Amino acid sequence: MNGSLDGIRVLELGNFISGPYGAMLLADMGAEVIKVENPKGGDPFRGWDFGGDQPNFWAYNRGKKSVTLNLQTAEGKEIFYGLVKSADVVMDNFRPGVTKKLAIDYATLSKINQGIICVSITGTGPTGPYVNRPAYDTVGQGMGGMMSVLMDPKDPKPIGPAYSDCLSGMFSALGVLSALMARTKTGKGQQIDATMVGSILAFLNAPATETLSHGRVPGPYTRPRQSQTYAFACSDGAMLAIHLSSPQKFWEGLCNAVEHPELIEDPRFKTRPDRRNNYEELNKTFAPIFRQKPRAHWLERLEAHDVPHTPVYNLKEVFDDPQVQHMGMQIQIERKNKPTIRTVKFPLDYSDTKAPHPLPPPELGEHNGEFLKALGYDDKAMGEFKEKGII
């Protein structure tokens, strides 16, 4: 079986990250994903910043097919309705109200196909006081609390990847899976609303629950202090991280690994509460020790003493690691007359079904003929559609 979602057809009306990422995850699980794009340029990531064929688009659009449709025309809408008849899912990340304005909302599409599942990803949902605000990843991160647990308040700069975009895409894909299961019982589809803010809060479930329970507001070092995680620079400039967690044996192993067993009984650090209360002091005590020798030395010592540890890799180093290579996390996607794409594989392994090797990201409108001919349109009709800017 070529993927657990083999036989499921998804129409993606996505731009940038959240919608395309959610749909790509479904493609990785075997769904047929048809990316429906505006004929005038398509997804903005096709020409983002550097223009043309580049990784920002590849990263979120492998495994898909592309059809161009001008949904503001009656003919384009009619073609889309034809595609909906055989589809299982329609996914979009338009601003609230756009699908209704275009007459491609769930209320309209469910009359064409009662089994259709519509997924809309927005910043804060389809209703409410902020419904008319534009929302990008930064908005989701800031309003959802992510920035407050990442940024240094003394030097406030947004950092890190597109958490709210990717998390809302992941939750939207999860929503599709559950709605498909529900449809097996009811025979009906439904509307799913995923939000960037809600996805961030769901991801921050533990610190949010603690805040609601005790009123203590976490900052960027709250969890490292609680979980007893530390990062150190070594003599060669490379970094490593340690996660002591709660077992006392890890603390003792660390002290023995760095050849300072006297620290085991140090009253500042003897128990986990002591280490939590003196987090900064422990960091200052061990930092100069780790700066004395290169990372490879310390990794060997930490492994010998069974201390949870990791090198802090940059993304180039990650793929040189023998365990990551063993996991097969890097894949190559061959393309005709274009450079090979090197990217990251879908991270789940199944015992029976398998994630199909992804198709290359599609050229804009590459599959117009395949799907329009299946709807009964001939070459002449497609030529006229192209001249009128419909496809």
Protein traits:
single chain, 391 residues, alpha/beta, Rossmann fold, formyl-coa transferase, domain 3, 2 domains, three-stranded antiparallel beta sheet, 18 helices, 41% helix, elongated
Structure commentary:
The two termini are about 35 Å apart. This protein has helices spanning about 20-30, 55-60, 75-85, 100, 105-110, 135-145, 165-185, 195-205, 205-215, 220-225, 250-255, 270-275, 280-290, 295-305, 315-320, 320-325, 370-375, 380-385, and strands at about 10-15, 30-35, 65-70, 90, 115-120, 190-195, 230-235, 240-245, 310, 330-335, 340-345. It is built from 18 helices and 11 strands. It has about 400 residues and is an alpha/beta fold. Helices cover about 40% and strands about 15% of the residues.
